[in-house]
Amino acid sequence: MPRVILLLVSLMVIFPFYSRAEDMIKGPNVAGAFYSADAKELSDSIDNFEMSTSRVPSDRKVLIAIAPHAGYPYSGPVAAYTFKAIVRNHYKTVVVIGPSHYFPFDGISVWRSGGFKTPLGVLGIDEDFAQALLKESPDFKFSPGVFEREHSVEVEMPFLQKTFKDIRIVPILMGNPDPKICKDLAVALNKIIGTRDDVLVLISSDMSHYYAYDEGNSMDAQALENIKALDAKQFFEGCMSRKFEMCGFVPVTTALILARLRGLSHVEVLKHANSGDATGDKSRVVGYSSVIFYSGLLGQEKQGSLEAIPALSKVQKQNLLQIAHQTLETFVKTGRVLDVEVKDERLKAIEGAFVTLRKHGALRGCIGNIIAQGPLNKTVRDMAVAAASQDPRFNPVVVDELKEIDIEISVLSVPRLVKDASEIELGRHGVIVSRGSRQGVFLPQVATETGWSKEEFLSELCSQKAGLAKDAWKDARTSLYVFTADVFAEK
To answer: Which tens digit of pLDDT belongs to each residue from 199-237?
Structure first.
């Protein structure tokens, strides 16, 4: 057989071609090894792990989590803490990110369609999400061969199947350590998730490998301190220098960056243990941890955030307007962004905001963050700069215009998904329309300023802001979110 044909056959074995829909169902690699291949035994084992956990908080709105991926007899009791803590959350999509143990490669591999099969059945892929992610970078690819022996994402699947019904997954394997890939993936996930609050990013990783019991625990404690501090740089460098270890430190670094981007300030280590705790052999142990990253308590967004943003006093509003005004003048005149520090804790709250510039009453620029990505005072500062220089509808503001410009600030509540347009109150609710990677937003005051009917408002939102058909808001595939805003201005 010619050498070229031999090479092609070899490549097909390592990286098989997947052309038919049924070929895209990924079979299990470690059923019967890491966990039972018998459906009943597997189900019972997960039930037993969860029954053996101590008290676990289940009232957190968890958006990112870490769980271990070793054989169930070793890591299953720790993994159970993660899944028990998120059971009350409602997710439609779970992005499962793990390291590639067997095939070194650059970038990431995203399983793009079909599903993952375990003894408990098949978990379907969220194909829209996966395809949107693959478009974000040439370093994001579908390389099925790297999944052929891998267990890191697979081990999480039976737990997901026992915990949730009707979810879709996006399995991702990350390759060689690269801070840029971590950042690129975090930014892409943040963009695609957008205003959705029904997406869980689940990181699969074990901790230190094959140290004596006390040394392994000491290393793991250092790693967890960096995770709790959301210090992606220090964590990545600590793993690279072997001060501490996580086999999934590249996915964990991505999670730390993503947590910052999404304004998640709450990190909780639910459980840490190692293989020595399970077997009694403490000579060479492997560490495991359960960690959750959350935005607040379940139900908070319905009980408080949407209906009533924590009130800003007159003085606090004046302070924010002053920050925006000083930032605008300094940036336009010098190109420098002010270093803004405040003592008022209310102004440090993690909240989204828009800054609108008006010249003689006409719009001159408007930019904002719907999803809170930092303290309110710094968000207002950054959005003032963006409104003056980055709104694609206008040229950058120049010095001669400064005396003619008035500033308006809109502090936003947490967006809430609604069933349909009947829940939208014009003039009170801002609205976000979302389908796939396309999104658009109108602030509440748009309806008042234009005098549009609800149908006109939603039709213009779809066409102007999201690039969708005007009637896309009527389609069940389109998501509608509402939020309220505390709006105040210099004039």
So the answer is: 999 999 999 999 999 999 999 999 999 999 899 999 999
Q: Give the CA dihedral 308, 479, 263, 383, nearest 10 degrees.
A: -80
Say if residue 280 is exposed, middle or buried (CB neighbours under 10 Å; 0-12, 13-18, 19+). Answer: exposed
Q: Interior CA angle at 428 toward 425 and 434, to 5°?
A: 70
Distance CA 15, CA 8 (A): 10
Q: How confident is the model at residue 59 (pLDDT cuts 50, 70, 90)?
A: confident
Residue 87 lies in a domain: yes
pTM over 0.70: no
In terms of Cβ atoms closer than 10 Å to its own Cβ (0-12, 13-18, 19+), residue 327 is buried
* Contact criterion met (CB below 8 Å) for 427 and 447: yes
CATH number at residue 374: 3.30.700.20
Q: How far is CA 62 from CA 90, 171, 173, 337, in A?
A: 10, 19, 22, 34
Residue that is last in its domain, among 345, 373, 408: 408
| CA–CA separation, 137 and 127 (whole Å) | 17
Task: Please say whether the beta carbons of 172 and 108 come within 8 A.
Answer: yes
72 vs 155: CA distance, rounded Å? 8
Is a pLDDT exceeding 70 seen at residue 117?
A: yes
Instruction: For residues 220 and 269, state if they share a domain.
Output: yes
Q: How many domains does the chain have?
A: 3
